[in-house]
């Protein structure tokens, strides 16, 4: 009941925030240099005035800005995101077409980084001042500091060029005609390198954060009490230290989850993963504003949704948080 | 020094390879290749950008095809006649051609494509069609084009990408851009559209009913979409990809990839386009408005260095405005060799005061960035105060369309005839804001306008030649733009892919004759 009210309140606010985001994005994009019609004409390598005028009229770019804004906002209100300038396909279809691949990639990376990060962080906290603990932290620091694209390229060089274990790019093997279980296995193989690449950075952050906040929690009185009443060290770590150390990790996980739609541009580009990130990057280069605005909208919506989920999870993890919303 | 054994092995290898070229083509197999960037759609005629041409050139066809010497070959037209006054062109169509949906291809399709479809949608075809008075189907398989006046390049305009034949029965009377068949293009070509997973692959399959006996040999072609240049190189290295069309990997990867076993390279197949890299120089304002400054830039640049280092020695440094594949090239002009001394003299003469100018590199990848750096260094050596400004494609388009630049890189296709690919850069009535492909530099010269306009409609060719030679002399002196290089765009492929490039548009229509020796 408490949760239902919380969620309802938040959803109401979310609608207002989304509305403001739509307007802000629209105005922001108007400020970018580059006219979509000119870019399309440029890509065609030939253009006369008639061609440019046809394009502008089709996209409604010949209208004053407030008319364009009104058309766009009233379209969004009816969940009509318009057509992609370059591809001539409804924006909604394009996004839905790419969304599964992106969610598969970022979702896998999310789970992978969260689980491995917490495990590694707990291990490091339990082994503080031991060489093995320092090794974990050193590795985490390396992953934290290494640029993502470099990791991606190097993992391709090592695992697909030299060792030949894993495919270098794509979502599945083109032309192999796999179905059923074989297809699942094929996609899983293609998923290994991009998901790992994407997971490493967040895994490093989770590791560092888990360790710090667990060491922090371990100083608390209730841990001393637990130890005094004779609980096993493992049980103390899991039940008393880790659970209390989870809050900052939930915050961060909420942030990472919010980036799931648009946060994998580099990885998707290097690994030719047919996801939203690439779509967004191409839309930006082509000044395909409708498409770009559509993707911004979805990303923003997802961030808001995950913020609400994070708030609910806070309350589940720590019953002390109740009012104040 | 080769040992006798090595010589014997070489001889044996040579004998083997000669045997291989003489062998019978094999049927079957699918070729994996790359398309970069992913095209916006595949309906050629509606979309004319390079990636669409490359894929859809195998689905659609034109009336004619062109050899690597740009001589016309029969395609959908099996023969043609030109009247003595150069105004009437009669095409006799093949009678055994069907569209991919089984309908027969007839003269009505040609009239519809040229007179309705292209007039409405296609700027490059429109440029040719403005010389056409009427297009008539005299019977089911004969089409007559009557021109308002002779037009020299008319016969070279029928390439599939420029003058695509589209099916009248599917498009007539519809809203072309929203036609339901745009998602599933129907042509007459050797391959049929099968499937497009956006962001992943475009699959074409063999057209079993193709009218040319026995063709095509391949079962299909898969065009992979890989957005990152490094990843494309890897895909070729590890054997997933058989053919790397030109421009799909960075130039600095080419020596490494071409040195691999079983990898062959060809520069053929770009004669029709013959991409010509140029340096726009703003003729309107700043130091670049002075002819002597522009000449100084030409002398300051070490174009041979750029060719050897950035382009792996491929391509060709032009004398002047006409490239080697354009017709009527003037070969007796004093070359603008690398001559910093001469450049400094010219700058002194004009009294260049060190005003700062900028270069816009072409935002098409690392090679172009490096090229701009090389030119910047050349210009600084002769005392020109120059800096580079990076943009993305959108910004570059905008800056050129608004004439907001001093020097800017570009490259343009030559389309086999000066009236199609070259005059557009220099004609003064082609000055208009908003496009980066017209007379962007703002050059105006009445005599040049007269000569180009007269040459386009002069008849026969000898008349045209005299006019074009004169115009080249004027342009050579005025340097409206910098002529950098005719680009060498190599195609890399596994050596067991045979007969890959058989025309002047290369892999855009090449898979028709290709076969796999596997």
From TrEMBL, chain A:
It is found in: Cell membrane. The keyword DNA damage does not apply. GO terms for biological process: transmembrane transport. GO terms for cellular component: plasma membrane. Its main location: membrane. It holds the Pfam family BPD_transp_1. Keywords: Cell membrane, Membrane, Transmembrane, Transmembrane helix, Transport. Residues 99-314 form the ABC transmembrane type-1 domain. The chain crosses the membrane at residues 12-32, 103-126, 138-167, 187-206, 245-271, 291-314. It comes from the Bacteria. It is a multi-pass membrane protein. Belongs to the binding-protein-dependent transport system permease family. This is Peptide/nickel transport system permease protein.
TrEMBL record, chain B:
This is Peptide/nickel transport system substrate-binding protein. It holds the Pfam family SBP_bac_5. It comes from Vreelandella aquamarina. The keyword Transcription regulation does not apply. Belongs to the bacterial solute-binding protein 5 family. SUPFAM superfamilies: Periplasmic binding protein-like II. It comes from the Bacteria. GO terms for cellular component: ATP-binding cassette (ABC) transporter complex; outer membrane-bounded periplasmic space. GO terms for molecular function: peptide transmembrane transporter activity. One of its GO terms (biological process) is peptide transport. Keywords: Signal. CDD domains: PBP2_NikA_DppA_OppA_like_13 (cd08517). Residues 1-22 form the signal peptide. The keyword DNA repair does not apply. Residues 71-428 form the Solute-binding protein family domain.
């Amino acid at each position: 009941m408490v949760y239902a009210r919380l969620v309802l309140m938040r959803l109401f606010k979310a609608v207002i925030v989304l509305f403001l985001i739509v307007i802000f994005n629209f105005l922001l994009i108007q400020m970018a240099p580059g006219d979509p019609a000119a870019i399309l004409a440029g890509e065609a390598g030939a253009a006369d005035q008639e061609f440019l005028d046809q394009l502008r009229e089709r996209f409604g770019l010949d209208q004053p800005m407030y008319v364009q804004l009104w058309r766009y906002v009233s379209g969004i209100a009816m969940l009509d995101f318009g057509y992609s300038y370059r591809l001539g396909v409804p924006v909604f279809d394009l996004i839905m077409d790419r969304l599964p691949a992106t969610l598969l990639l970022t979702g896998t990376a999310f789970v992978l980084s969260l689980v491995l990060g917490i495990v590694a962080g707990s291990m490091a906290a339990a082994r503080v001042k031991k060489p093995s603990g320092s090794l974990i932290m050193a590795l985490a620091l390396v992953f934290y500091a290494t640029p993502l694209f470099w990791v991606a390229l190097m993992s391709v060089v090592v695992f697909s060029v030299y060792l030949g274990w894993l495919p270098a790019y794509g979502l599945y093997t083109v032309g192999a005609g796999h179905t059923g279980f074989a297809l699942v296995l094929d996609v899983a193989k293609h998923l290994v390198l991009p998901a790992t690449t994407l997971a490493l950075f967040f895994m490093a952050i989770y590791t560092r954060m888990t360790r710090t906040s667990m060491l922090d929690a371990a100083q608390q009185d209730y841990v001393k009490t637990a130890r005094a009443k004779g609980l096993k060290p493992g049980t103390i770590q899991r039940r008393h230290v880790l659970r209390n150390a989870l809050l900052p990790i939930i915050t961060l996980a909420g942030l990472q989850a919010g980036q799931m739609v648009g946060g994998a541009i580099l990885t998707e580009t290097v690994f030719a993963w047919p996801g939203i990130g690439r779509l967004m990057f191409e839309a930006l280069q082509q000044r395909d504003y409708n498409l770009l605005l559509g993707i911004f909208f979805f990303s923003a919506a997802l961030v808001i949704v995950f913020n609400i989920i994070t708030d609910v999870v806070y309350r589940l993890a720590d019953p002390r948080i109740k009012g104040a919303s | 020094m080769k040992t006798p054994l090595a010589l014997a092995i070489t001889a044996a290898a040579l004998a083997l390879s000669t045997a291989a070229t003489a062998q019978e083509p094999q049927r079957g197999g699918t070729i994996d290749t790359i398309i970069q960037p992913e095209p916006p759609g595949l309906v050629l005629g509606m979309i004319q950008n390079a990636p669409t041409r490359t894929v859809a050139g195998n689905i659609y066809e034109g009336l004619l095809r062109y050899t690597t010497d740009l001589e016309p070959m029969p395609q959908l037209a099996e023969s043609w006649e030109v009247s003595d006054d150069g105004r009437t062109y009669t095409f006799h169509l093949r009678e055994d051609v069907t569209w991919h949906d089984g309908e027969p291809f007839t003269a009505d399709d040609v009239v519809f494509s040229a007179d309705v479809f292209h007039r409405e949608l296609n700027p490059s075809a429109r440029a040719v069609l403005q010389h056409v008075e009427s297009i008539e189907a005299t019977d089911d398989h004969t089409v007559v084009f009557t021109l308002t006046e002779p037009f020299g390049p008319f016969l070279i305009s029928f390439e599939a990408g420029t003058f695509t034949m589209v099916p009248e029965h599917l498009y007539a009377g519809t809203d072309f851009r929203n036609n339901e068949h745009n998602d599933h293009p129907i042509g007459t070509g050797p391959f049929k559209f099968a499937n497009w997973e956006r962001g992943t692959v475009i699959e074409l399959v063999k057209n079993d009913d193709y009218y040319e006996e026995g063709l095509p040999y391949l079962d299909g072609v898969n065009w992979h979409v890989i957005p990152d240049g490094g990843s494309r190189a890897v895909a070729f290295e590890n054997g997933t990809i058989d053919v790397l069309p030109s421009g799909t990997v960075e130039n600095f990867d080419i020596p490494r990839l071409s040195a691999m076993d079983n990898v062959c390279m060809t520069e053929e197949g770009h004669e029709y386009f013959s991409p010509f890299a140029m340096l726009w120089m703003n003729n309107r304002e700043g130091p670049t408005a002075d002819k002597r400054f522009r000449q100084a830039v030409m002398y300051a640049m070490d174009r041979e260095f750029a060719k050897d280092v950035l382009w792996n020695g491929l391509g060709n440094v032009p004398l002047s405005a006409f490239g080697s594949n354009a017709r009527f090239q003037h070969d007796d002009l004093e070359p603008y060799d690398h001559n910093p001394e001469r450049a400094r003299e010219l700058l002194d003469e004009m009294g260049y005061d060190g005003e700062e100018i900028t270069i816009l590199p072409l935002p098409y990848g690392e090679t172009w960035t490096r090229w701009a750096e090389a030119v910047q260094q050349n210009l600084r050596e002769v005392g020109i105060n120059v800096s580079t400004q990076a943009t993305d494609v959108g910004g570059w388009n905008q800056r050129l369309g608004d004439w907001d630049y001093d020097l800017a890189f570009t490259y343009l296709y030559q389309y086999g005839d000066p009236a199609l690919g070259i005059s557009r850069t220099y004609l003064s009535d082609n000055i208009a804001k908003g496009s980066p492909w017209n007379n962007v530099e703002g050059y105006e010269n009445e005599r040049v306008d007269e000569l180009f306009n007269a040459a386009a409609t002069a008849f026969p060719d000898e008349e045209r030649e005299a006019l074009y030679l004169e115009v080249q002399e004027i342009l050579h002196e005025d340097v409206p733009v910098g002529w950098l290089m005719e680009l060498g765009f190599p195609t890399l492929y596994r050596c067991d892919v045979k007969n890959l490039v058989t025309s002047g548009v290369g892999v855009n229509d090449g898979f028709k004759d290709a076969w796999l020796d596997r």
